[in-house]
Structures are given as C-alpha cells and as structure tokens.
Amino acid sequence: MNEDEALTPLFARIGETGTARYTRMPDGELLAETAYRIVRDETMLDGNARLNLATFVGTWMDEHADRLYHDSFDKNMIDKDEYPATAAIEEYCWRILADLWSVPDPSDVIGTSTIGSSEACMLGGLALKRRWRAARVAAGKPADKPNLIMSSAVQVCWEKFCNYFDVEMRLIPTTDEHPIMDGTGLEDVVDENTIGVVVLMGVTYTGAYEPVAEIGRILDGIQERTGLDIPIHVDGASGAMIAPFLQPELEWDFRVPRVQSINTSGHKYGLVYPGVGWVVWRNTAALPEELVFKVSYLGGEMPTLALNFSRPGAQVLLQYYRFVRLGRIGFTAIQLASQRVAQFLSKGVSELAPYELLTDGSDIPVFAWRIKPGYTDKWDLHHLSERLRIRGWLVPAYPLSGEQTDQTVMRIVCRNGLSRDLAEDLLRDIRTETAYLDELEQPMPEAGIKTTFHH
C-alpha cells in the first residue's frame, strides 16, 4: 500500500476504482476507511428498515440502547464464567417472562435465551419429544413414531423442527370456516404417539390468536374419553409480548394447565434488535434433565440449554434494558400505540371499495386483507405490493395456507416506530395506488410479480 494513499480522494483509491464484489479474498490490504465505504455502499440498495412492514422484527431502539449495544457486543452469552453478570441478567429476563406468563410457582421454573423464536421452538419441541419418549419407554411401549399437531399456518421453523428431529408433522388445514386452529378436528389426529399440540398466539399470516384455553378444554375431553394426556406448547413469537399488556384477562399462558412451555421473540414485540428469543417451561419437571447441561459459574454450577453455543450477549442486556426502562406501564403504552396504528390503518383499508379485512389488529398489531371475490380481473394484490414498493413501502402479498392457498392476501405489521404520521402517509399511498390500479382498462402484466417475504 502506498503510504500516501490516504491522501488520494476516496473514490479514486485502490478498491474503489475497480470491482468491490469480491468472491475471493484480495491479496492486499485496503485502508479501513476505503473498506468501510465499499461495504457500506454495497448495502445502499437495501430497503429502509423502518418502512419494511413485512417483518415482525424490531427495527428501532433508542440511543441509550444503541450505546448499551456498543458497550457489550463483544460479550459471548455462553461464557458464563467470564461474564457472570450477563449470565445473571439472562436469568432475570426469563424469570420476568415467567411472571408475565403466570407461572404457577416462581421457585420451580426454568427458561433460557436463544438466538430467536426458531431456536426456542425447537427447544420446546425437543422437551415435548423427550418427555413423551421417556413415558413410552417406562410403559414398555414403542417410541419410534412421534407426531406433533399444529395448524397449517405455522411458521416454517416448525417444519424444520419436525424434519430435523424425526417427528411426524400433522397439520390441521385452515379453511374459510376455520381460518385458525380452534380445536375442530383435534380428536381425529391425536393418538398415543402425539407428543403435543402447538398453539399460535399470533398467526403469521393474519395476526390472529388461536384459542389456547379452548384447545386445552378440548384436549381435556379427549383425555377423559381416551386417556391420552397431551400437552400444549404455545408459540407466542409475537403475541406472548402483546397479550400480557393488551389482553391481560385472556387465558392463554400457564393459567391453562396443559401449557407446558411458551416461546417468544425478544426481537419482535419484545422491542429488541434482531438476535434474541426466549423459552420458559412451567416447571423444571417439564424440561427433561438430559437437555440441561451444567457449566461452572462463580465456583458453582449453572444450567445451560440451547442449540447454539457461542452467541451474542448484547441482545440479552438490551432485553433487560427494555424491561427495566419501560416496566408494565411503558410496554402497555408502546403496544397500545402500535395496536391503535394497526386499527387506524385497517379501518382505512376496509373503507376502500376493492378490499375486505381478514383481521383488524385487535389481537397483535397486525392485520390482513384481500380483494373482494369477483371485484376485478385487471389486477391483484401482487400489483399493489409492487406499486407500494416503488414508493418505498415493503408490504407483502402472499397466499394463505391449508385449503385457502387459492386466496392471496396482504398484511401489515405495525411495530414500535411506525408512527401515526407514517401510517397516514402509508394509507394515502395505498389509496393512490389502488385508484391507479382501478383505472386500468387492460390487465396488468404478470412479469416480475412474485410472493414477497412475509415472516
């Protein structure tokens, strides 16, 4: 490297005057400023995270959180001996969640942080499988054909779990009559090999809650008739951080006796940057001991359980920051503000002639809509999605699941940071682009139309 290179204007330097798209490591070095600019410029065509209304993942935290993140991004969560204070804060967090979720005995509970809800779901599923297997072996029965019951609207992480850990995935398809899993048909799919039922507190496709307590009652009836004692895992990736604040009277958590474990995403409505999830079991008996590993901690032992080993500790500290900074009052205020934005937008969309709502944001601050059957043959929701993308908004259009795959919907996720002003701008753009599409005299071309990310 020429010692005078730092004096060369930035975009005339080596590294900027040729290709920056390396698929093999370059031979020489670059100035740090030049390398930074190359990487930064490569991301310029990424969308604006705040305008990404497809994702549930948080895109904003305050400046104090940013400073805390900067202060702690080098901490490795698994190294509990080196970072005992961070390890203790992890435990504070899952105990706070256990309390939020009405755990029966705070002295007999266990939980852990994870990279996100997908890992948390897999730990919850593994616990169900191991408990079922232990019971089968103790009874002298075969334990080689486990199955797990869930709605066809589950997030793909459950398909991964069943694939990775050799569990039969039994889906209850969504239908127009039963757009969520409400317990109908459960008795037809459960059997002695069923390790559990996954219930969604916030369906990815529409934002609706599945009725945990009602499904628990149906499983009670099945046990009375058949003797099958089937537990519930609640996938509360989003709703488990909404319901305690906006619907505190709703019984969905450990108040339902069959609920053995609950997961959530700290980086969704837990209001933290990407990289943290949580899972809590109602008691230590719900988590088979073989899944818990002991590590040295301040001269003693501390339990650890996770699929990942080395993982960032910073997001755990950010979660604790959120809990102590906001408290119940602050969390309630933020989630209520997001819900009000969702209901403002859903009302505005419902007033437009082409559309009808599937959900209105009354559960989690998410709503979905579709074009009324037979309304038009000139355009569909993929075209509206493309038109909104031109204006900077990412609003996904995608097919529903189960027996509803012939129906395309759009969905908006209202997160902390989507202000009422931004919502008014979005609604204005939806009205404008809908009017544009409604004026078409010929069908829109199909080129370039595709299903967009909606998880």
Automatic annotation (TrEMBL):
Listed GO MF terms: aromatic-L-amino-acid decarboxylase activity; glutamate decarboxylase activity; pyridoxal phosphate binding
Species of the source: Agromyces seonyuensis
Alphabetized UniProt keyword annotations: Decarboxylase, Lyase, Pyridoxal phosphate
Alphabetized InterPro entries for the sequence: Glutamate_decarboxylase, PyrdxlP-dep_de-COase, PyrdxlP-dep_Trfase, PyrdxlP-dep_Trfase_major
GO CC, alphabetical: cytosol
Cofactor(s) of this protein: pyridoxal 5'-phosphate
Enzyme Commission identifier(s): 4.1.1.15
Family: Belongs to the group II decarboxylase family.
Name of the protein described by the UniProt record: Glutamate decarboxylase
GO biological process: L-glutamate catabolic process
Residue(s) carrying N6-(pyridoxal phosphate)lysine: K268
Substrates-to-products reaction catalysed: L-glutamate + H(+) = 4-aminobutanoate + CO2
